[in-house]
Specification:
- The protein is of the alpha/beta class.
- It has a single domain (about 1-205), classed as Leucine-rich repeat, LRR (right-handed beta-alpha superhelix).
- It contains five helices and nine strands, in the order H-H-E-E-E-E-E-E-E-E-H-E-H-H.
- It has helices at about 1-10, 15-25, 170-175, 195-205, 210-215; strands at about 40, 60-65, 85, 110, 120, 135, 145, 160, 180-185.
- The strands form two sheets. Strands 1-2-3-4-6-8-9 form a seven-stranded parallel beta sheet, with no helix packed on it. It has a two-stranded parallel sheet with strand order 5-7.
- It is globular.
- It binds 2-acetamido-2-deoxy-beta-D-glucopyranose (2 copies).
- The site of one 2-acetamido-2-deoxy-beta-D-glucopyranose has 4 residues, from loops.
- It is found in: Cell membrane.
């Protein structure tokens, strides 16, 4: 591409503009994705079975929703340390390898809803201190959330855990989220046991921090 630029230099300025446009948008945009601006790669609904190749290193918004991606290599995000928004909604992910998010300290928004996750292990988001919104809803087999799953999420304001297969959750998973403002827990098969009683008590104590309408469904406990 650089040699392409040199080759164009003797030509009119319009060609140079074209060349820089190619550098910024065309050449570096992975097929079959769209790159509406220099920091956004939009591969939504393209039928992808795996992550696209050749994503620009300076990407900030990576939109991958509505594909069939079933695996993220643990080192995938090492190269994309500027990533602010990662949308993996509605894919086929069944697990998050430990360390996957350990280099994404600028990540603010992460959507893993509508996947096939079964558990959220301890320390998954340990280095994600900038994360503000985390969507983990609608994973029909997600039944286990470690007590330390959300450790490190010191900026997290919104956590979506609705429509999963959660029958219980330790209060400790939530009580460490000091910035939490919105929590969604409805449409889970909660079981009334000691864990639930503790969770219920914590929710009662934190009514002021949580929007009433959003989590009242958690009270349906049969
Ligand atoms: C999920 O993605 C598939 C494939 O793109 C699409 O057909 C389906 O409507 C999407 N489902 C939701 C709930 O968005
Ligand atoms: C989701 O997980 C279930 C059970 O682990 C499995 O039977 C199913 O094939 C998975 N679906 C996809 C789309 O990966």
């Amino acid at each position: 591409m650089l040699s392409c630029c040199r080759w164009l230099q003797p030509l009119v300025q319009a060609s140079l503009l074209l060349c820089s446009a190619l550098l910024n948008h065309g050449q570096l945009c992975p097929t079959p994705c769209l790159c509406p601006d220099p920091h956004t790669v939009d591969c939504s609904g393209q039928g992808l079975g795996s992550l696209p190749d050749l994503i620009p290193l300076n990407v900030r918004r990576l939109l991958l929703s509505g594909n069939f991606i079933d695996h993220i290599p643990a080192d995938f995000l090492v190269l994309y340390s500027d990533l602010v928004c990662l949308d993996l909604r509605n894919n086929s992910l069944s697990a998050i390898e430990l360390g996957t998010f350990s280099t994404s300290s600028k990540l603010v928004f992460l959507d893993l809803g509508w996947n096939n996750l079964t558990e959220i292990p301890a320390g998954t988001f340990l280095e994600s201190g900038s994360l503000i919104k985390l969507r983990l809803d609608s994973n029909p087999y997600l039944s286990s959330i470690s007590e330390d799953a959300f450790l490190g999420l010191t900026s997290l304001r919104e956590l979506e855990l609705e429509s999963n297969a959660l029958s219980s959750m330790k209060v400790a998973s939530l009580s460490q989220l000091s910035s939490l403002k919105v929590l969604r827990l409805e449409d889970n098969p909660w079981v009334c046991n000691c864990n639930f009683a503790n969770l219920y008590a914590w929710l009662m104590e934190n009514l002021d921090r949580l929007p009433r309408g959003k989590f009242t469904a958690v009270f349906f406990c049969s």
